[in-house]
């Protein structure tokens, strides 16, 4: 096989609860991931070395050196296999870069699945998940897809049943936000307030809403402990969230570390109308309807 292509989804966090800062610099999380229908495609082609190139909407914002997470994923897979493999990785980007939707993690997951197939390794899904967990907290979910709760740093996953399809609109912002800078701002704001930080707990009402497919209940229970920090760094996101609410969103939230804003809609028609309203009023320059849950990294 000389070429393999894998499709990988973006994610939104419908709950992101961040515990106190640990001594190792991380936080314990309760992170409910939900995969949505905005996709990157990762193609792996035979080559002597591991390289990456990027095309699509956000290509000029993606590193193509050793800092690219897809390259790190391919190298980790080769190391696990104990051989010196090569692959040209071609990434077609539709997921925003540094947008809080796990675009880099999705590409890493795509590289793992594509190279596993290209190199004929035949590694089971469980092995790929172990490698993914060492690459980053969001990479295992990009492999898994669907809806799942992540604990620890977010990489320990348990699948969650969902009772239907949920419709979303994602307002894409100019520029990105560094995940590390948003966590640092969260810690700073917490230290300044001197408030006790509770241990993160899964929201039972949110779980019920997901399980029954109740979009109204889900919208009422969306939560993100990083939202205050993201708004502190990017205050212009506040009016975008409010505009979505005024256009009838069932829930409005910063996606992950931001700056993408996520709006839960009633149905597909409402999502299209909401996206149109956000762009025509200037609340967002780009608003993309999507649905979830969708599958994780998938061979095409």
TrEMBL record:
GO BP annotation list: isopentenyl diphosphate biosynthetic process, methylerythritol 4-phosphate pathway; terpenoid biosynthetic process
Gene3D superfamilies (UniProt xref): 3.30.230.10, GHMP kinase, C-terminal domain
One annotated GO molecular function: 4-(cytidine 5'-diphospho)-2-C-methyl-D-erythritol kinase activity
Enzyme Commission number: 2.7.1.148
Tagged with keyword Protein biosynthesis: no
Pfam families on file: GHMP_kinases_C, GHMP_kinases_N
Catalyzed chemical reaction(s): 4-CDP-2-C-methyl-D-erythritol + ATP = 4-CDP-2-C-methyl-D-erythritol 2-phosphate + ADP + H(+)
Active site (record annotation): 11, 138
Keywords: ATP-binding, Isoprene biosynthesis, Kinase, Nucleotide-binding, Transferase
GHMP kinase N-terminal domain segment(s): 68-146
Domain GHMP kinase C-terminal: start-end pairs: 206-282
Domain of life assignment: Bacteria
Matches recorded under InterPro entries: GHMP_kinase_C_dom, GHMP_kinase_C_sf, GHMP_kinase_N_dom, IspE, Ribosomal_Su5_D2-typ_SF, Ribsml_uS5_D2-typ_fold_subgr
Pathway involvement of the protein, from the record: Isoprenoid biosynthesis; isopentenyl diphosphate biosynthesis via DXP pathway; isopentenyl diphosphate from 1-deoxy-D-xylulose 5-phosphate: step 3/6
Residues holding ATP: 96-106
The family this protein is said to belong to: Belongs to the GHMP kinase family. IspE subfamily.
Function according to Swiss-Prot or TrEMBL: Catalyzes the phosphorylation of the position 2 hydroxy group of 4-diphosphocytidyl-2C-methyl-D-erythritol.
Protein name, entry field: 4-diphosphocytidyl-2-C-methyl-D-erythritol kinase
């Amino acid at each position: 096989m000389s070429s393999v292509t894998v499709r990988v989804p973006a994610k939104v966090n419908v709950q992101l609860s961040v515990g106190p800062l640990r001594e190792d610099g991380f936080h314990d999380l309760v992170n409910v991931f939900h995969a949505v229908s905005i996709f990157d495609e990762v193609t792996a082609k035979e080559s002597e070395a591991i390289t990456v190139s990027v095309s699509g909407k956000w290509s000029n914002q993606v590193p193509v050196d050793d800092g690219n997470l897809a390259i790190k994923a391919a190298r980790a897979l080769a190391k696990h296999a104990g051989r010196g493999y090569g692959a040209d990785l071609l990434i077609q980007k539709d997921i925003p870069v540094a947008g809080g939707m796990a675009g880099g993690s999705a590409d890493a997951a795509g590289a793992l699945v594509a190279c596993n197939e290209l190199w004929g390794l035949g590694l089971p899904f469980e092995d790929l998940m172990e490698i993914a967990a060492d690459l980053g907290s969001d990479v295992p979910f990009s492999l898994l897809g669907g809806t799942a709760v992540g604990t620890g740093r977010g990489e320990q996953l348990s699948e969650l049943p969902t009772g239907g399809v949920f419709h979303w609109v994602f307002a894409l912002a100019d520029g990105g936000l560094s995940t590390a800078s948003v966590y640092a701002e969260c810690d700073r704001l917490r230290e300044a307030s001197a408030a006790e930080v509770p241990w993160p707990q899964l929201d039972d009402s949110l779980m019920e809403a997901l399980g029954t497919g109740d979009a109204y209940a889900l919208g009422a229970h969306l939560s993100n402990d990083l939202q205050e920090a993201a708004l502190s760094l990017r205050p212009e996101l506040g009016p975008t969230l409010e505009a979505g609410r005024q256009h009838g969103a069932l829930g409005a939230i910063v996606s992950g570390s931001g700056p993408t804003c996520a709006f839960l809609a009633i149905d597909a028609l409402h999502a299209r109308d909401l996206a149109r309203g956000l762009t025509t009023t200037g609340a967002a320059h780009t608003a993309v309807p999507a649905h979830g849950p969708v599958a994780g990294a998938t061979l095409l």
